[in-house]
Amino acid sequence: MTHKWIYAFEEGRADMRRLLGGKGANLAEMTSIGLPVPPGFTITAEACIRYQEEGASFLEELMGPLQEALSRLEAKVGRRLGDPEDPLLVSVRSGAAVSMPGMMDTVLNLGLNDRAVEALARRSGDLRFARDSYRRFLQMFGDVVLGISHDRFEMILEEVKRGRGLSQDTDLAAEDWQEVIGRYQDLIREETGTPFPQEPMEQLRLAVEAVFKSWNNPRAVVYRQIHKIPDDLGTAVNVQAMVFGNRGPTSGTGVVFTRDPNTGEKLLYGEYLANAQGEDVVAGIRTPQPVALLQETQPHTYRQLEETCRLLEEHYRDIQDIEFTVEEGKLYLLQTRSAKRAPRAALRVAHDLVQEGLITREEALLRIDPEDVVKLLHRNVDRRAVGKVLARGLPASPGAASGKVVFDADRAREMGEAGEKVILVRPMTTPDDIHGMHAAVGILTSRGGMTCHAAIVARGMGKPCIVGAEEIRIDLSAGAFRVGETVVREGDLITFDGGSGEVYLGEAPLSEPEISAELSEIMAWADEVRRLGVEANADTPEDARRARELGAQGIGLCRTEHMFMGHQRIPVVRRMILAEDEEERRQALAELLPMQREDFLGILEAMEGYPVTIRLLDPPLHEFLPDSEELAVEVALQPDAEKEKLWRQVRALKEANPMLGHRGVRLGLTLPAVYEMQVRAIYEAAAELRRQGVDARPEVMIPLVGDEAELRIMRELVEKVAAAVQRETGVEVPVVVGTMIEVPRAALTAGELAREAQFFSFGTNDLTQMTFGFSRDDAEAKFLHHYLHEKIFKENPFAVVDEKGVGRLVALAVEEGKKSRPDLVVGVCGEHGGDPQSIDFFHRAGLDYVSCSPFRVPIARLAAAQATLRHR
């Protein structure tokens, strides 16, 4: 039995989307329910994939079935392709299984040639219409099939209009179009070396091949990469009898949405262009009118359109984007698809369809893109009021900001404290910049990836951030950056959108976020469904309060190192690090103790009744010290005994590979006084709050553990200090101790670690680095983009958890840990905790909660609900 490559519209169904593409499946479905769809057939997406593999040889194999399908279409409409008396004309359109608007190619009016155009004129009684249709076909065929720039055709058209003193295409007469046709044919002969093909079957073969090829045109490839659409889907090809919107004032073409795609409001939203074909709207050749004006000019057609929209929305149970043509007052449908919609509209439509009884709550939850939720919680740039994009980078943290450019963290703090809005612009940020990042309204870097320091800290702070904007050339010594010929100096205003990665010159208006009633209700639906708990990564009381407002059920990661970076604290921290004996170190720690206690008081109080997981000091100590190279320069330029001593101490602490060096639990074991101070601050703060009636619930997390003995010693230290605080205060605070699983050995020996730990929290950022043997910053800066472009990796493993490797370690650790300690609580606190795809994996792996930056908490709540529904 021969393979079926082609389906007539009446043979298809809506559920054949993978085979027929979205457009073909929907044309088939509309045909089956009796709507006015011009007849046609669909060449399957499988044929496209076969063509990509075999090329022209497969196309010859396809010609037999194509001729048979065409013959059936000709019999249906009573006209033949290429008939010199009454020609059939067809459109040839792409249509993949996943909607890719405007990414692939279309040819209209196929079948016209020098003889058929005259026949069309006789049949229609309108020579101008016939020649207009022919010149459109020549232009589209020349552009799409023959690869001649669209602009070359437009230049000819503009020259003809100028020569006649006309401004609109509609002002050209039949003889004018004949001149355009002649010049278009001359252009085709000049560019290709052969005349325009007059044989309609050859036109059809070439057009089908061009649509197949368009699956891999650059814009389609980039669109698939951005939207994570597989490359092996292919595109179907729809061949459909033409109907003509350019047959006079009672004809036209339009696009209508069954609801407003920007707001979700229930009204017809769209545009209509009289006496035109579809590409006139797309190309912007003429300005269309609101579709509502049809109500006045053609009330019968408008009522028919209104009823069709209602029927299609009820049939598909979703907002529809409908392409239609009116030919001499008769409505024809050319396409329907689920509409692309703005985030605000997505939530409102899902909510309203539930209220109208068209879908269930569960279906509504599955229809919402979790990333749309976060966009509603941040300010956005009003794109109607901005000029040209100055530069683009990676959208590291959503939200928009306008402010004065500053290049130095100290200057950012100084200007911020003076009430000015500043944007911190750096090649990349380090922990030393934390005070400037806190003072800035946004952060922009020319280097780095989605999980670099700037990206992670900005997401945690809820500040907009763009990283890796490589077009920007920063000159810190000059206090300026350059993009091409444009120079931006300190104090100049810029605006950027961290959700799109776009930077603009000057100040632009920003739209304020709002938590709508629909969003609140949808989040409540999600909370009823999800199994996973959702907590937040927060280091300040402000972050904790914001996280709680957004629905966090605790703090899954409180990083104490960020508390050490304040400008009043860093000198004390440095004294502690550089102390020459234990006494000197303990004096510095005694000064830090009340500062740490105040930090914990605020966070524990903000999260009253919920757990707050506090990670003891993790990074290597040299990160809190001045840069050794800068010190060396200072010593060389101006010798100073004290500074030289400091330089030697800093150099002595510097490590060849600090990520694998003296950090985490290793600090606690070799410098136990540091961890003792932190634990004392935690339990003193909790005791004080409990004395005041506040239900403070601290949990202590030991970082970078790889061996059971390490954790046992640290647990005993925590219990000893907590017991001492209880004796001193008379207040009992339950002691909960756990560890981060971020070293592969910890995952492999999880059963042993669970004997000492009451909880595990996966630090998937470091676990990913150590599993792959990657330095995250170096990987993203130097080679990861190559891995992704060449499809060595499907996803950035720092953005989406690597299920085969890192995920296997996670699943093993969960299984072994819970086997050893059945009441073990297991969560994740890496950046993956806010990624929907990763959350789906964590649900399947049996984790109890995810923790993410505060502004991604709503995303995690929705993604957790979707995971529950998908794997019920």
Task: Walk me through the structure.
It is a single chain. The protein has 872 residues and is of the alpha/beta class. Helix content is 47%, strand content 17%. It has 35 helices and 33 strands. Strands 14-24-23-16-17-18-19-15 form an eight-stranded mixed sheet. An eight-stranded parallel beta barrel has the order 26-27-28-29-30-31-32-33, surrounded by five helices. A hairpin with a 2-residue loop joins strand 11 (320-327) and strand 12 (330-338). The longest helix is centred in the C-terminal third of the chain and has 25 residues, at 582-606. It starts with 5 loop residues before the first strand and ends with a helix. The mean pLDDT is 91.
Output the keywords.
872 residues; alpha/beta; 8-stranded mixed sheet
Number of strands: 33
Q: Label the structural class.
A: alpha/beta
Low-confidence stretches are none
Radius of gyration: 33 Å
Which strand order do you get reading across the main beta sheet?
A: 14-24-23-16-17-18-19-15
N-to-C span: 40 Å
Helix percentage range = 40-55%
Mean pLDDT: 91
The amount of beta strand, in percent, is 15-25%
Sheet with the most strands, sense and barrel status: 8 strands, mixed
Number of helical elements: 35
Write down the overall geometry.
Answer: elongated
